Every structure is written in C-alpha cells, then in structure tokens.
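Good morning C.,

I know you're traveling, so I'll keep this short. The sequence:
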Amino acid sequence: MANTTYIPIIGTILNIGRGGSCCSQMMSIRTENGIVNFTINSETLVIDSRQLRSGMRVAAFYDSSLPVPLIFPPQYYAKIVTVIGRDENVMLNYFDQNLIAIDGSLRLNIARNTIIKTVNGQIVTCNLENRFLLVYYTVTTRSIPPQTTPRKIILFC
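The tokens, ready to paste straight into the viewer:
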C-alpha cells in the first residue's frame, strides 16, 4: 500500500441502500460538517468484515487523488471503512523506524494489550517499523509529536 492520499471522513451511518449495481451499496454518514455519501463496492475493504448498520460510528477513507463529482452532498468511493468507538480516533499512515508517522503527527508506544493484526485478521510476527498502519487510539500526550498507546493496529502488507 504505497498510497498516502487516503483521507478519512468520520461520522455516524444514517442509512445504507442499494448502489448502482448488485455488488455496490450507497452509505450516507452524518459528520460534524454535514452529510457525506460513499459508494461501497467489491474493492472496498471493510476492516474485520463487519456488517455495517445505521447508527454505527465509522471512518470511511477515500482516495483524494481520484476525481470526484461536484455535487452536494459530496460523494466518494470508499476504499476502506472501519467501525470506531465513540471517543476513538483512527489514523492511516506510514510509520518510520521509531514508529513516528511520516508527517510527524503521531508516535506509537506499543503495549502488551495492543491488538496487532494484518488486514485479513492474522497475527503479526514482524516488526511494525517502516510500514503502513491503521491505528486505533483514544488519548495522546501534548508532546511533539503527540504520543499514544494504541488499542489496535492493522498492518497493511
């Protein structure tokens, strides 16, 4: 996964309906800035293969390098969708040899109880340095860069 152009939009699912084909769906989420629509298709990765339902808080990532229609509400193709907790944050980024995000926005401190898996749910047996990671966390320090002990990490191989 050499793409760093994935942008998250976080909100609560309002509804999910049939998309333009049998294998696609339309998902509307309410964000703090209004409603955003996403197309979910066979290329969308839904973390943990969760069944998405109205009322769930999710982060939907779209590829900002792709063109989008100039319509309102905005509509994107979801590349990754993950369910997150009420006070939880999520970040998809490349982390260096010190587990600092490539943009310097977060440093990871791994704990024994941090859940670490691959995208397909397998146990991770390698180091997390110099890799793309999807990180679930709640609080950070006020240091520069902010530090956190993540609840869960998904490794993108």
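Safe travels,
E.
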